[in-house]
UniProtKB/TrEMBL annotation:
Residue ranges of domain SCP in the record: 52-168
Name listed for the protein in its UniProt record: Cysteine-rich secretory protein family protein
Keywords of this entry: Signal
Keyword Nuclease in annotation: no
InterPro entries (UniProt xref): CAP_dom (IPR014044), CAP_sf (IPR035940)
Signal peptide: 1-24
Protein source organism: Roseibium album
SUPFAM superfamilies (alphabetical): PR-1-like (SSF55797)
Highest taxon, organism lineage: Bacteria
Pfam families (UniProt xref): CAP
Length: 182
């Protein structure tokens, strides 16, 4: 091999290697889509008996009557859990007294009282419940003397900041009668 050609050989080899690496890495460039995760929302089962046991034990410790599980409130909770999971945020107009009233009305759930607790990031029901107990406003809802029913839901999100979204909806349907002011 000629001395000049032999000196260029390593240089050509490096160019070929660099070109190969550049082509191989094109699929990993930001925005290419191949390695980016598509957001997937998954409704998760929540142990309703565990939830009822936790909340009713807590209410009993505070001199309040037990709540009954309500599947309509589970559905209302699930829709809200998906709503906040889609946004990866609990900051939404739907999380207001007006928003809850609208959602209960849309579910044909005539009621005298309603409240809800949202949570994000909690890995399990125990953590969500402890979080609600530790928040003044959420705790007030757990100990609301005017509600008689409860529903709960959880939606997971595979991408984003929070991943786990919880909604607990409490209400007093008209079928349970008017609340007695205390």
């Amino acid at each position: 091999m000629h001395a000049k050609a032999a000196a260029l050989y390593p240089f050509r080899y490096c160019l070929v290697l660099l070109a190969f690496l550049a082509l191989a890495s094109c699929g990993a460039l930001p925005g290419s889509g191949e390695l980016e995760d598509e957001t997937v929302l998954t409704n998760q089962n929540v142990d309703k008996n565990q939830m009822l046991s936790m909340i009713n034990s807590y209410r009993k410790q505070n001199g309040l009557p037990a709540l009954k599980h309500d599947t309509t409130l589970d559905d209302v909770s699930q829709k809200m859990a998906r709503h906040i999971a889609e946004r990866d945020s609990m900051d939404t107009w739907a999380h207001s007294a007006f928003g809850l009233s609208q959602r209960l009305s849309k579910a044909s759930y005539a009621n005298y009282a309603g409240a809800e607790n949202l949570g994000a990031g909690y890995a399990d029901l125990n953590a969500a419940f402890r979080g609600w107990q530790g928040s003044e406003g959420h705790n007030k809802n757990l100990l609301n003397p005017y509600v008689t029913r409860v529903g709960i839901a959880r939606t997971n999100r595979n991408t984003g900041k929070w991943r786990n979204f919880w909604v607990l909806t409490l209400a007093r349907p008209k079928a349970d009668g008017r609340p007695v002011l205390q």
